[in-house]
Amino acid sequence: MTSQKALSTTESGRKVKLTQDEQVYAHIFDAILEQRLAPGTKLNEESLGEIFGVSRTIIRRALSRLGHEQVVVLRPNRGAVVASPTTEEAKQIVYARRIVEKAVTELVIEHSTPEQLRLLRKQVQEEQQCFVQGDKGAGIRLSGEFHLKMAEMANNPPLLSFQRSLVSQCSLIIAQFELSNQSHCSYDEHFELIDAIERKDKDKAVSLMMHHLDHIEDKLNLDEEPASDNLREVFSNVLGNKS
């Protein structure tokens, strides 16, 4: 396995060695955040084992964790696939994200330190640089990681667990339902949010976060009726003409 994901950086900047299944999990999680793994992609255990140079047991552990976070669907006897949320599921996920983000923002106001905010601002600068340089995938990943870092700063492990699942699920939703030719300027709103947090302005920070989520949702097309696999439903007009 490559060493790129062998270490993880904690909030304090300390490097921690990851286990093999944690490394595989991190690679797949990042691929979902960067929208390099399309919804519905089959995750073949044998192929992944060859790619990462690990046993299928290690792959299963990583996929099981991703399945618990609902970004991978584990199908008995048919293998795992990247989740493909329906429009109704997408709406529910976006709604849940709003509730979690509001709580996270309020807790960050209470618990964040100047050093944490400095590191968060540095991360947003990296996000901005990625978009400026045309590296959209890395920019999208860093945009998602901004919200994960916020959840870490909230100092509430259950919320962080919810947020990891919701952020990655939202990335899948964006990959499926985002309207074409939409611009990505999340870093501007991230900078504004950090400014409000530094001022301890809870009302402004929550308002900015909700406004930020409005922009994300506005880019999604969740109103169209999904295509049907029911032949009689698809060709109802033909059947109607025969009656």
State the domain count: 2
Structural class: mainly alpha
CATH superfamily of the largest domain: GntR ligand-binding domain-like
The CATH topology of the largest domain turns out to be Four Helix Bundle (Hemerythrin (Met), subunit A)
- Unreliable parts: none
Instruction: Count up the helices.
Output: 11
Order of helices and strands: EEHEHHEEHHHHHHHH
Question: In whole angstroms, how far apart are the ends?
Answer: 63 Å
CATH architecture tag of the largest domain? Up-down Bundle
**Strand percent estimate:** 5-15%
Instruction: Tell me the name of the CATH class of the largest domain.
Output: Mainly Alpha
Report the average pLDDT across residues. 86
Which key terms come to mind for this protein?
Four Helix Bundle (Hemerythrin (Met), subunit A), 5 strands, three-stranded antiparallel beta sheet, globular, 7% strand, two-stranded antiparallel sheet, 243 residues, mainly alpha, 11 helices, 2 domains, Arc Repressor Mutant, subunit A
Overview of this structure, please?
The chain has 243 residues and is mainly α. The protein has two domains: 7-82, Arc Repressor Mutant, subunit A (Orthogonal Bundle), CATH 1.10.10.10; 87-218, GntR ligand-binding domain-like (Four Helix Bundle (Hemerythrin (Met), subunit A), Up-down Bundle), CATH 1.20.120.530. It is built from eleven helices and five strands; from the N terminus they run E-E-H-E-H-H-E-E-H-H-H-H-H-H-H-H. The chain has helices at 20-33, 45-52, 56-68, 87-111, 114-132, 136-153, 157-177, 186-198, 202-218, 231-234, 236-242; strands spanning 7-9, 15-17, 42-43, 72-75, 79-82. The strands form two sheets. It has a three-stranded antiparallel β-sheet. The model has no long low-confidence stretch (mean pLDDT 86).
